[in-house]
Design goal:
Blueprint lengths: L1 H11 L19 E3 L16 E4 L10 E4 L5 E5 L9 E5 L7 E2 L1 H13 L3 E6 L14 H16 L11 E6 L1 H11 L22 E4 L26 E6 L8 H12 L4 E6 L18 H11 L23 E4 L6 H9 L5 H7 L15 E4 L2
Parallel strand pairs: 5-7, 5-8, 8-9, 9-10, 10-11
Antiparallel strand pairs: 1-4, 2-3, 3-6, 4-7, 12-13
Amino acid sequence: MKSLIFALVVVLACGDVGAQTNVWQPRAGRAQIPIWPGQAPDAEPVPGPENYTTTEKLIAGKPVVVVNNVAQPTMTVYSPQAKNTGAAVVVFPGGGYNCLAIDLEGTEVCDWLVSKGITAVLLKYRVPTLKFEGLRESRQALQDAQRALGLVRFRAAEWHIDPHKIGVLGFSAGGHMVTALSTRYEKRLYPAVDAADEESCRPDFAIALYPGHLWKRDGDLELNPNVPVTSDTPPTLIVQAEDDPVDPVENALVYFMALKRAGVPVEMHLYAEGGHAFGLRRTEHPITRWPKLAETWLQTIGMTSVARHPPAAPIPPEATRPRRFHVVRQGETLSAISSRYYGSAGQWRRIFEANRETLKDAHTLRPGTRLIIPD
């Protein structure tokens, strides 16, 4: 019950900033990096100076730090100090596009990712949104997300990141940002600023927790048309509680069904209880054990290292099979080619890894390209 009450606090209390007027800063040793060299596109006035406050209500025995009135979006990079898998995740905190639950759904998530050898990038995107689009969607937040993905990919070598292992993770409104960026990466919502905007802003994988803004409440079970799922939408993990009073389970269901119809690898975990806005904090509800599910999923899709079995005995040359090739046709995707040869769209990465020297990225296939099809 406490988590259910807190869900409403995060969404509704964003404007109740109390007496604090401090600007949020990450812990010592980490710096916020502005994502725009000048003024952000489509800038809106904010109600007041940027500030943060802490909620009176607790989740798992702790309050939540809430950031308000963000006019200058930033990203903060958390790099693993020991094992580095090469994977990276851009984290989108939730807050109904009104504020940001910066610790519950931000810094705490980054600390967990770093402990697993994954570089985390916390995006402090613009809030509040004053002029919504569609189902209370934020153009400015999506612009910030597109820009951040391009920047991370542009600086991948500097930050010891594999540019083909960059994903996104978000909660509530941040979960909606995950779905929007996963389906609207082909065209930037702003004029190019610099070389970073020449990089693809398509995530290589996506994790959406209790996402909102995907289904019209009390409407038909149909996905928001501003989230155009295709076969090139990245592999996705969805986690949702059926008793969520803020973003009903239908939001997760319509997105899951659209991904399945498009042949996108997707895994969804629904729990009877858990409410909304629990982040990584352990409560009495089993849904708060979701990080372990995410760790396993990231391994199964090849984004993080897995334990390797001892190598099998070598096959004599005369017993080896001839190498297979495929010539790309107009409009073909790696997912479609994977389905043809393996019976599953989820094996597209095997083809991509075997053709890294030929392919610029995983979603740009030139007709006539000759691809190796690994056994």
